[in-house]
Amino acid sequence: MKEKIVAIIREMAAEYGWSVVSDFSDDTVLLESGLDSLGFAILVARLEEELQYDPFSMMDEPVYPRTLGEFVAVYERYAS
């Protein structure tokens, strides 16, 4: 899952001309990765297209992941 998410981030960066960190790790802070709030929203939409689910709409209580590891964990938890 992590590899898929990072690949999509890199595709988006190339497509939109964004500058993102060169090395993504579980500890990479999303707001320091080169993604802004719009980039994050586009990422979630692309992942919904790719994976056919949006874990954020499936949650009972909203979670706002701070790091890439937390973000990946949200997607892994709600994967079917």
From TrEMBL:
InterPro entries, per the entry: ACP-like_sf (IPR036736), PP-bd_ACP (IPR009081)
- Look up the domain of life of the source: Bacteria
Identify the residues that the record assigns to the Carrier domain, covering every copy. 17-53
Write the protein's name: Carrier domain-containing protein
Originating species? Pelodictyon phaeoclathratiforme (strain DSM 5477 / BU-1)
Q: Which Pfam families match?
A: PP-binding
